[in-house]
Amino acid sequence: LLDSFILWGFFAFQRTNTIGTSNADFPLADPGMYQLDITLKRGQNLAARDRGGSSDPYVKFKIGGKEVFRSKTIHKNLNPVWEEKTCILIDHPREPLYIKVFDYDFGLQDDFIGSAFLDLTSLELNRSTDINLTLKDPHYPDHDLGTILLSVLLAPKEEQREVTMLMRKSWKRSSKFQPQSLRLSDMHRKSQLWRGIVSITLIEGCELKAMDANGLSDPYVKFRLGHQKYKSKIVPKTLNPQWREQFDFHLYEERGGIIDITVWDKDAGKRDDFIGRCQVDLSTLSREQTHKLELQLVEGEGWLVLLVTLTASAAVSISDLSVNSLEDQKEREEILKRYVLRMFHNMKDVGFLQVKVIRAEALMAADVTGKSDPFCVVELNNDRLLTHTVYKNLNPEWNKVFTFNIKDIHSVLEVTVYDEDRDRSADFLGKVAIPLLSIQNGEQKAYVLKNKQLTGPTKGVIYLEIDVIFNAVKASIRTLMPKEQKYIEEENRLSKQLLLRNFIRMKRCVMVLINAAYYVNSCFDWDSPQRSLAAFVLFLFVVWNFELYMIPLALLLLLAWNYFLILSGKDNTQHDTVVEDMLEDEEEEDDRDDKDSEKKGFMNKLYAIQEVCVSVQNVLDEVASFGERIKNTFNWTVPFLSWLAIVALCVFTVILYFIPLRYIVLVWGINKFTKKLRSPYAIDNNELLDFLSRVPSDVQVVCIYFFNSHIVVNLTLD
């Protein structure tokens, strides 16, 4: 309260000394009527917060208590130059712009440098203004903390005036019948939809700066376009790393945007070293064409080689329930034609997804008034759209339709419900995760909301109706390609229960091999004469008649055997209660960690130990998941993948039966040796590992497939 009072006093003092029109004189406008263009130019004489007498400053912009922009970090500089631009849609200029400057500390809490307010009502409309803001700290008002230079342009959004007026009129009419208001105007809704796709292939780095004592580096690259971020893999001990990674960004601005690229050297147990940075101005690149860029690093040595392609927007949309693409017969035929007839056109466009977010019931009360302000976030991999907010309601109705392009049929649709809080980040209310292959088209279903870890139900139910149309051939081919990585993923943290769980999972996989070895050894020891005799006869028959094609044939027979067991109802595969119990224990530990996180700040100082433990934890998870994925392929956990495996094994069996092994090895070797010559920038991949990455592990089966099968309620519609 004292901090808030000091900030309010400081803001009031600054407002009384501002030259310009006051709020009372400022013309009233409709919500979403103003666009604020800000150029963060530079800082001067910032306060030092590091031991070396320097700082690593970055800037945050806040309006109405919510963060709307965060700049890049300028390392070891008290006079940083950012030259970053951002565009913000605001309801009314009476909301001040709050500027906060921090010093970035890797692994620790960032240090506060200073803050300032900008009264937007003092700005002249449609005129760019340079503003020099003095940073202050309410606790130390006499300290000189430096200044921030901005260029600000405030302009009304004329093109949406009519739309906003219509929304206000329709809201006034509807408010007599239902106590809810729309948070998102049409302009806000359009701002969610991307206008294009930026496809980036990180090829290599050349002659990078050596940052380690051995004269080498462990480089990785960070990309950022607006709020979208991507981090490459780490290539150890090299100054000429080969990454060969491909990813996509969404392009929201018509004029393009600027991609910020920084190169870092990974150091275990301490802050990573900064190698250099560069930028890509997308407005200078032509569309529908692949550009090879060699970017020289600034503030460092060496350069990066990229391939950048700008393409038109994918078919994503947000509409009301009355506007339904699949109910329009012409549009439905066009969609079916696109995915059924055009078999090999645009292999990345696998299918079409339509999600109707209808309503929710009995949500958790997140506010002190016993109500919530819920809104929904619909995510498919890196595609993310959201509904409007329904205020003060535990049974909201959204009635929105979202459409997405499907890049990978093995993706999981996530629908998360949040409570909007004006002065802080949104509160989590519940979440559902639905594999696309488990969706039954055209059925409205009630899904019980689950916790963040998807390990158990929370309060509330959400009603969804989902339709999926996809091309099976494209989906099968896409399965053998690298899986798309999510940009926004929680950082791994050390967890005793998670470490124990991964150890037990790996132990169970190893025990399968050990038990198989014991079984074979028992046959050699003639513990059971009948079994040993049968094994001996089978051994003689197989070895005498063995051909290479029998290996995929044996795997094919195993798949067929398990399939017939499932059909006959004799499948003895039991639900993994061990994993489920451990997930519940992990959830309890997460709750304790959340409560005690502030008291355990010293854990940040043990970062080196934690990183080693997290690495061991992740290795255990990868080894255990690999074995579980192989098992689940043969157990028909995902029938689509098992059928795909059958087709592949049949093809391999026929090839090995009719074609001598030497010719197969010859073709394989020629392909490997000439691949770089035929396609210099091809991304290396392993089709078998890419296939297995789509098969769920036992943990994923428990979290997504098992829980969904138990908590989904079918609704009969008149």
From TrEMBL:
Coiled coil: none annotated. GO terms for cellular component: endoplasmic reticulum membrane; recycling endosome; synaptic vesicle membrane. It is found in: Cytoplasmic vesicle, Secretory vesicle, Synaptic vesicle membrane; Endoplasmic reticulum membrane; Recycling endosome. The chain crosses the membrane at residues 533-561, 640-668. The keyword Acetylation does not apply. It comes from the Eukaryota. Residues 15-133, 178-295, 329-449 form the C2 domain. This is Multiple C2 and transmembrane domain-containing protein 1. Belongs to the MCTP family. PROSITE patterns: C2. One of its GO terms (biological process) is regulation of neurotransmitter secretion. GO terms for molecular function: calcium ion binding. Keywords: Calcium, Cytoplasmic vesicle, Endoplasmic reticulum, Endosome, Membrane, Metal-binding, Repeat, Synapse, Transmembrane, Transmembrane helix. Its main location: membrane. It comes from Chelydra serpentina (Snapping turtle). It is a multi-pass membrane protein. The keyword Membrane applies.
